[in-house]
Amino acid sequence: MSDIVTIRSLNQLPAMLESDYALWQGDSEALLVGLPSKPIFDLVVTSPPYNVGKSYERKASLRDYLAWQARIIDLLIPRLAPTGSICWQVGNYVDNGQIIPLDIQFDPLFRRHGLALRNRIIWHFGHGLHNKRRFSGRYEVILWYTKTDDYVFNLDDVRVPSKYPGKRHFKGPKTGQLSGNPRGKNPEDVWDIPNVKSNHIEKTEHPCQFPVGLIERLLLALTDRDDLVFDPFAGVGSAGVAAAIHHRRFWGAELLPDYINTARERIRSALSDKARYRPHDKPVYDHTKSNLSKIPLPDLTSPPVLLIAK
Ligand SMILES: C[S@@+](CC[C@H](N)C(=O)[O-])C[C@H]1O[C@@H](n2cnc3c(N)ncnc32)[C@H](O)[C@@H]1O
Is residue 157 domain-resident? Predict the structure, then answer.
């Protein structure tokens, strides 16, 4: 089994460069500046801090936040393989009750490098806080860019069951034969994958980790076996778990030592085939099957209670 190298200083970079699984505990910008400026990564996939004041971030002005993210993107692009992809998963920045969709803000930061936007994937999930002054937010966005037109896209590896697999050709030479792809259909660009809340099997101490299935679908479609996946804001290593399950290599950068420790443990379990995760193609739970979706009927067997008003 490959070991997972953890490094904290640029002096230790040679160890990272030689390993299939490596974690940098520190600032991702400092790591990127230290890495050779040549194509290394086949897929960069991340969910950066959204600048909403989570425990691990310091809320900056939107301008300063985007300037910082632009520097990271500028450092990533020369290190991305020509056949590679970059996926940036973002939600909304909220300012004084107004939402600013971050994907709109990020798009120019990628386009100015000549990257091509292939999909703007809507990740829809069913749970979260309820809002009183606007509709409750239930989706985030993944921007998927490629560096060139010669990019990896393994559609057959991520097909999902078709709606009507029994549909047949009704005219022409194939009349009567099944018309759909027997491997299933394209998963389309709206993905229904539960977010990681307290009762999710992947839940760790991290307040906003990726579901592994979300990265699994991207990684299966956009990389080949043994390719190198990089997450510059790796958190508890969910992208590394997906990589280890599917025989891709993985490097991640994360500021906080506790998250690095959890990431290492999770990737280690995945490398020993013991990952606990929810696959990308598992159907979403039908909530109508839960007893909680029914309002209990009043108990008609007990005698009525007489309430006498004073
Ligand atoms: C949205 S979370 C990513 C969660 C991750 N996708 C997962 O599944 O665990 C963003 C992460 O970036 C880390 N972070 C913030 N600033 C950083 C920096 N300058 N360099 C590296 N990591 C940073 C935070 O500690 C946090 O864990």
Answer: no
* CATH code of the domain containing 237: 3.40.50.150
Contact 209, 238 (CB under 8 A): yes
Q: Is 90 exceeded by the pLDDT of residue 299?
A: no
108 found inside a domain: yes
Tell me what the mean pLDDT of segment 108-118 comes to. 98
Q: CA torsion angle for 270, 272, 278, 280 (degrees, to 10)?
A: 70
Going from the Cα of 88 to the center of ligand 1, the distance in angstroms, rounded, reads: 13
Would you place residue 74 in the very low, low, confident or very high pLDDT band (cuts 50, 70, 90)? very high
* Ligand 1 neighbour 267 (Cβ under 6 A): no
Is the confidence at residue 284, as pLDDT, over 90?
no
| Domain residue limits at 140 | 4-151+189-293
Residue 29 identity: E
Which among 77, 76, 46 has a CA at the least distance from the CA of 234? 46
Using the structure block, give the residue that is written with the tokens 């991640």.
252
Ranking 43-47, 74-78, 169-173, 226-230 by mean pLDDT, the lowest is 169-173
Task: Calculate Rg over the CA atoms of the chain.
Answer: 23
pTM of the predicted model over 0.90: yes
What does the alpha-carbon distance between residue 281 and residue 285 come to, in Å, rounded to a whole number?
12
- Decide if 243 is inside a domain: yes
Instruction: State how far the alpha carbon of 41 is from the alpha carbons of 64, 76, 120, in Å.
Output: 27, 9, 21
Ligand 1 center–CA 122 separation, angstroms: 21
